[in-house]
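Morning. Coffee machine broken again, so started the prediction first thing and wrote up yesterday's gels while waiting. Chain of 323 residues, entered below exactly as on the submission form.
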Amino acid sequence: MAIKVLKPGLSTTVQDLGRPGYYHLGIPLSGAMDRFALSCANLLVGNEEGAAALECTFMGPELEFTGDATVAVTGAELPARLNGTLQPGWTSFGVKKGDVLAFDFLKKGARAYIAVSGGVAVPLLLGSRSTYTLGALGGHQGRKLEAGDVLPVSEARGAKAGRAVAEDCRRGPGAQAELRAIPGLYWHRVTEPSGRHFFEDSWKVAPEADRIGYRFRDGRPLDFVPRTPPFGAGSDPSNIVDACYPYGSIQVPGGTEPIVLHRDAVSGGGYMMVGTVISADMDLIGQLQPHTATRFVEVDMPAALAARHDRENLLNKVRAALG
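Came back before lunch.
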């Protein structure tokens, strides 16, 4: 069983839940930008949650199947058509040899996940099949898919067609996204009024938004507390002596446009971080389109841990419903 790529879409890559344990060596986690959506897609087709699937951004691919399988599409509202017939999202459906899966225009969100029973069987690299395109690592030849690619799929019985994730379990951003964040180690570098404005302002997702990081604009610039630059830091007030970057860290180069580092982020550098987006909201960032209105909401550690617990409970609800 294999998948033939007839048309690759705008940016379609093989992703699973990532390769943890190598960030200190400069190799990021990678994996699905929306981990919840990928887990749900795999559960729908009877795979382990971390099986490799396809992540497509803004535009879906056109795929031909060389054998029978069960398929599910989750994440962004990107209507799927099997041989021209519309298929419901967040719901498993069967495909047969020679069937072609294509997609209409994107209606909501940014990234959709296509899971196939058995999982995409590209080689494991450092314990993962995820694609890290910046390092040409993993996935299918370390790159996004191209027309003519053939992806092997592991054999599996697959779950039956018609299984669905309940509407109230399908996560996505609202009309205005809210990203909860904890102020960071360098919060003291900005003035008190400026820090308050950062959380009061409405920002918009900039066109420069990808798997490495999401840039935001249209909020008020940060004002920095005067200082004598320490040895090893640059003269710009947003510069620091090089430090490690956690996933979700919010850099503000020059104090003007925040950048939230995501799954393919570099592991360290010389920009101060005003805070970190909590883990429970990282999936939502991966579904934000350019120009989406966004607010950063200040929370503390107990609130972040409670949000993580709520997210896990939601996934447990899906697990229980799909067996």
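The radius of gyration is 20 Å. Going to sketch it on the whiteboard this afternoon.
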